[in-house]
Design goal:
Structural class: alpha/beta
Number of strands: 17
CATH topology of the largest domain: Rossmann fold
Strand order of the largest sheet: 5-12-11-10-9-8-6-7
Helix content: 25-40%
Radius of gyration: 26 Å
Oligomer: single chain
CATH architecture of the largest domain: 3-Layer(aba) Sandwich
Amino acid sequence: AEAADYGIHPALLDAALQPLGLGLLLAEPGEGMTRRPFAWSGVTLHAQGAVAGRVRIALAGEDAVSVTVADPAGRPVASVDVLTLRQVAAKQVAEARSDSLFRVEWVPVAVSRSSAPAGRWALIGSGNGSGSGSSSGHGDVDVHEDLGSLAAAAGPVPELVFAPFPDAAESTDITDSAIASDAVRRATHRALDLVQAWLADERFAASRLVILAGQGLAGGPVWGLVRSAQMENPGRFVLIETGGSGDAEPDGELLAAAAVGDEPQLRLDGGEFCAPRLVRVPWPDAAGPGFGAEGTVLLTGSSGGLARLLARHLVAERGVRNLLLASRSGAAAEGMPKLVAELTGLGAAVEVAACDVADREALAGLLAAVPAERPLSAVVHTAAVLDDGVVEALTPERIDRVLRPKVDGALNLHALTEHLDLSAFVLFSSLSGTLGGAGLANYSAANAFL
């Protein structure tokens, strides 16, 4: 869907240049060197919005190529008469990572009470524990049991509709995987139902739905799902985290003023609003936690590309000598024998197991079989399932399918290993859990949980 916003989408252009890394046209770069695009000349865009392409790359001189991109029907998309590449030290590229690490920082933003809309607002649900602001003195807040009863009510459609999501799972014992995962699913299903109903009713097209939710065990996935809904439907949803140290009963008028502003996500704490920003952080000097050469490292989701990269890294760079690779497919996964042979060649003892980590009984059996002389020393959880679709097309079943490996898998791993002296317990999330992603509401929800 984003392709129409670009002359040629950056991802398509990047993919078109990937064959340069195969070493078929240009000689191998010098030792410790790599090639990077340096100068472009004779660049022509023939068509906009291509989502796929056929690429022809030909030599155009020393360390230079020509590039022609056509769509699947053979129609021209873009051409580059000469792309000159330059060799740079791989160390320089690695050092450039120092400004590519980010974290989320919540920064104060100004909200003026005078910005609150003068019309009526609505609150759906009880608002118990959410700080709905229905007692703020505004006087024009209509309380409804749910969105259906609001839609059925007579009168004008409110400009703002507040929907509190009390995070009942905050007090849940996460060692009880079934109870915790059920709390997550209930909250995420409710968010999906609410978002879909909101988008389906044209009467709310000019209104904003304000989700009041924490970012705890069950609230995190709600944020993940709604972030993706925001990307697909700009201006229709606002996320506000309430319940901070000074917000037992947030001021509804202040909430309303914040909700009509330009910030799609806000946190209210002590009467002050903050908005999330990505900020650069220094690259860590230390390598991070050790994994232990003598113990066994469990790597879940091992049939995926990410896990295979990690397996090589753990063995070649982190000194891991005993790997337990778990996935639902086990040894039958495509390419697994080749991966095992490669890791063995690097000096590791590798065991492959077919295990669904979301199945607590199966995971318990797998962990019980780890030999005592090579006890479990670390867990790296990368298991994931994709089932992409815009939020209107999702179903509770599609939500659950994607939540299962992330939520149930992580909860089971935690519950079954918390008594062990692990050197590392690593859960791989995704940028979609932080930023959302069009077509990724279920995946964003699952990763926001982690």
